[in-house]
Amino acid sequence: PVIPGTDAALALAMARWIIEHKRYDERYLLNPNKAEAQDDNEPTWSDATHLVNLSDPKRPKLKASVLGIGENQNVVLQNGVPVIADEAAEGTLEVDTTINGIRVKSAFTLFKERCFERTLAEYAEICGIPVEDIVSLAKEFTSYGKKASITSYRGPAMHTNGFYAIRAIACLNHLLGNYDWKGGAISSGAQYGPLAGLYDLMGVPGERKAWGVTMFRRGPYEKSSLFQKDGYPAKRPWFPIGNHALFEVLPSVGEGYPYPIKALFIHRIAPTLSIGDGERVLEILKDTKKVPLLVVSDLVVSEAASVADYILPDLSYLERWGFETIYPNQPLKLSHFQQPATRAFDGPRAFEDVLIEIGKALKLPGVGDNAFPDGSALHCTEDFYLKLVANIAYNGEPVPDAGSEELQLFSRTRQKALGRYFEEDKWKKAVRPNEWPKVVYVLNRGGRFEAPGSEYVGDHIKYQYGGQADFYSERVAQHRHSYTGEFYDGLPRYEPQRLFNGEEIRDDAYPLHMINWKAHYIGSHRNIHSSWLREIERENFLWINPRDAQARGLKEGDRVMIKSATSQVTGTVKVTERIRPGVVGSNYNYGHFAYGSMPVKIDGKPMAVDPVYGHVEWAQKPNSGYAGPRNAGFAANAVVRHDDSLNVGALFDPVGAGAAQLSTKVEVVKL
Q1: CATH code of the domain covering residue 592
Q2: Chain mean pLDDT for the chain
Q3: 193 lies in a domain?
Q4: Is this structure's pTM higher than 0.90?
Q5: Enclosing domain of residue 130
Q6: Predicted confidence (pLDDT) per residue in 366-407, tens digit
Q7: DSSP secondary-structure letter at 447?
Q8: Bridge partners of residue 96, in order along the sequence
Q9: Which of 241, 281, 399, 435 has a C-alpha 20 to 30 A away from that of 628?
Q10: Residue 218 pLDDT
């Protein structure tokens, strides 16, 4: 396996070999626009021949307006003459020239130069994969025409260089032009219009427009008043490209940057466990000057709830409505959702109901009567989700009506499963009477799923991306790093792990790369309550290769200290060949210090802690087959390296705005 954090080096090495040996699809890369691609039976095209303006510090694509031949269109060279890309029959793949005093190169030339910055041997040294294996992999990848694809997710992404790594991997698919081909890369999909159609669920009559910046500062730092005041470096990172930097919210609250808050609601996340530097994050939550009001919605008194002002008992995944989509790269059209299947306790409420009531109390638009553009109401959770189901049911050709027998079956099963929490009249009022039979039809099937057999049209998938594949991103290239002020790179690149201030992280005293993963049997922090699931594994063991274990005098079951440059935790060793030498790792689903594992008082009354198997003494021994306590194991994110250039916070990717949870190096010491 590749050394963690070096995936870009492996991808660029493969790309170098592919380019050197002309194993790419040249015809695909020469197409500069959609029309020419369609003439070649290609669903997509690339920017390989598009010219980049190197004379402009922002390094944008060369625009037709700059040459006086058009407006904001990209430009290619066709037979040595600049032509608007959308009008050209073919572009020139390799360009390095000057046009009207402007230095330009094609996107492909820039990408090729990037790949050739290192030899295969140098790439191999970085990523830990022998040259012959890199060559074999690149050769095999390019041996099947369009019927090959590379996909990636968490492993390459969760590093300080993760954005560039994902871009490098994507460019391997670009070289084949395999998008939307049978056997190639699927980058699109289709849903049954859940948020629009009969009901515009995103529309709010009289809506109030959001203004200002988010707490995690989505957008360019240079356009903010804080930049005018402070300049470079920014006090904390800004994210002009990436979004939803959850890991940055609470450290920012702690510093009141870009502004202090008055109240914080936490729902369905465990911020002290799911991000690095959780101990100091917990101290922020405790500080009533920094967080004057803390409201936590959860199933049990969690780590965050243990310091909350108010705890709102939440519903479990089997009790609630929900709409969480998976990645859209599916060959068939589908829409699915969560719906209540049972009711475990009396009392807990849907968090959405709480928000609706708060909205009503504040007299906000979008709740209560006339909440949606069609004049329909939003008084409860069902008012939203059943409209969503109606949209799904009526999208395109509507589904059939549920017959009388199916309607009766629906009512009987819901009454049995939900008891008094199934208020059928209230559910029916969420949609129009004529829509209800189709809504029931979709509810009974858990969603709407296109029948198999129509995934492809000829050699192409039916639901296509159908767009441009970019080797060079001018959107990325125009933005700057909020600490150094340097422009981001429009190309994929390999770079070492870095702090926010740009300093390379060495940590030579910590020779082992620490990775983590999700246990497939415990999907989220909430599932630690299940003793049946904890029977599968009493704790999260630290995986270590036999070579590394032997060098440290470790054997299976030894207790160890896992130390990074800034943190340490204790764990139990699992010696296994299933992890690469030089790398250790564990799943991240354990390590609770609340959630029923410790006694708490509610309204002055002590609550019972999680019961353990105590009927026989051996049940609590390791490898007994019985579940351990809820606080067994260690929090993998607790050992994630802090970013020394920040007061509070762990490593992160400044471009993609992702937590760099896999960029930590550690040492393992026997206790």
Answers
A1: 2.40.40.20
A2: 95
A3: no
A4: yes
A5: 7-179
A6: 999 999 999 999 999 999 999 999 999 999 999 999 999 999
A7: E
A8: 105
A9: 281
A10: 95
Residues 6+ apart with CB under 8 A from 534: 522, 528, 627, 628, 630, 632
Q: Are 473 and 164 in contact (CB under 8 A)?
A: no
Distance, CA of 475 to CA of 470 (rounded, Å): 11
Q: What whole-number percentage of the chain has pLDDT above 70?
A: 98
**Residue 449 corresponds to which tokens in the numbers above?**
């799923």
Query: At 227, which amino acid appears?
Result: F
Residue 447 dihedral angles phi and psi, to the nearest 5°:
145, -165
Domain limit, last residue, from 159, 179, 199: 179
Residue 494's pLDDT band (cuts 50, 70, 90): very high
CB contact at 8 A, 322 and 337 = yes
Element (H, E) at 297: strand 294-298
For residues 529 and 590, the answer to whether their CB atoms sit within 8 Å is no
DSSP state of 108: H
Residue length, the chain?
671
Q: What is the DSSP letter of 290?
A: T
Give the CATH number of the domain where residue 149 resides.
Answer: 3.40.228
Examine residue 469 and state whether it is found in any structural domain, yes or no. Answer: no
Q: Which tokens sit at 478?
A: 């125009």
Q: Which residues contact 232 (CB under 8 A, 6 or more apart)?
A: 482, 483, 484, 485
State pLDDT tens for residues 445-469: 999 999 999 999 999 999 999 999 9
Query: pLDDT tens digit string along 536-587?
Result: 888 999 999 999 999 999 999 999 999 999 999 999 999 999 999 999 999 9
Contact 303, 272 (CB under 8 A): yes
On whether the CB atoms of residues 476 and 654 are closer than 8 A, the answer is no
